[in-house]
Q: What sequence folds into this?
């Protein structure tokens, strides 16, 4: 472990204290896990503490752990993972928080701390169904407004539930149940007798 990562790890442990559920370091990156009820206050500490100063949220995404580790995962199903950058200290940290309820995953919104979280949280809601408490405009961002379900969940069917097409008689786009029959594509192999021979 480099001195820089040791300093970051010590600063994180000192600043977060009991809010830090776990801290791991692998491949030159530090990942911390905080509990969902400590999430907002821990993120504010990460931004405001003089020894940390994570001024920028680089990314935020949802994760579905339902089939993680070949189904051996026994923890909560949904998590939100954020990547933060401290320009002042040239540090990066990954923050993971698990939603307490698998049926209705809810975590605090970060838009009051980092306004850039707005669209990231909308995407996590759209694709995973994770709700962000305190988000003032939580609506779909990449799928259609009439879309049913959350397509990045592991239990979402590969072909989806409905398909969209233009109906020339009604002169509008309509939705109908999926009509695609699942099939396995096998590549066609062409063998040449003299291929590669000189």
A:
């Amino acid at each position: 472990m480099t001195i820089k990562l040791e300093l970051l790890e010590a600063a994180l442990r000192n600043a977060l204290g009991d809010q830090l559920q776990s801290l791991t370091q692998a491949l030159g990156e530090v990942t911390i896990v905080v509990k969902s009820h400590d999430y907002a206050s821990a993120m504010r500490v990460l931004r405001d503490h003089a020894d940390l100063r994570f001024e920028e949220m680089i990314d935020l995404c949802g994760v579905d752990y339902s089939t993680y580790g070949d189904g051996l995962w026994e923890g909560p199903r949904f998590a939100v993972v954020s990547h933060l950058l401290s320009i002042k200290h040239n540090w990066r940290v990954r923050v993971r928080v698990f939603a307490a309820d698998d049926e209705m995953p809810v975590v605090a919104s970060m838009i009051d701390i980092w306004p850039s979280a707005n669209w990231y949280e909308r995407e996590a809601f759209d694709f995973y169904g994770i709700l962000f408490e305190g988000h003032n405009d939580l609506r779909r961002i990449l799928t259609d407004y009439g879309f049913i379900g959350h397509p990045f969940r592991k239990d979402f069917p590969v072909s989806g539930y409905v398909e969209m097409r233009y109906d020339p008689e009604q002169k509008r786009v309509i939705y109908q149940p999926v009509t695609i029959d699942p099939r396995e594509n096998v590549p066609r192999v062409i063998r040449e007798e003299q291929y590669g021979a000189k």
About this structure: The chain has a mean pLDDT of 88. Strands lie at 20-26, 29-34, 56-64, 78-86, 91-98, 106-108, 131-133, 162-167, 172-177.
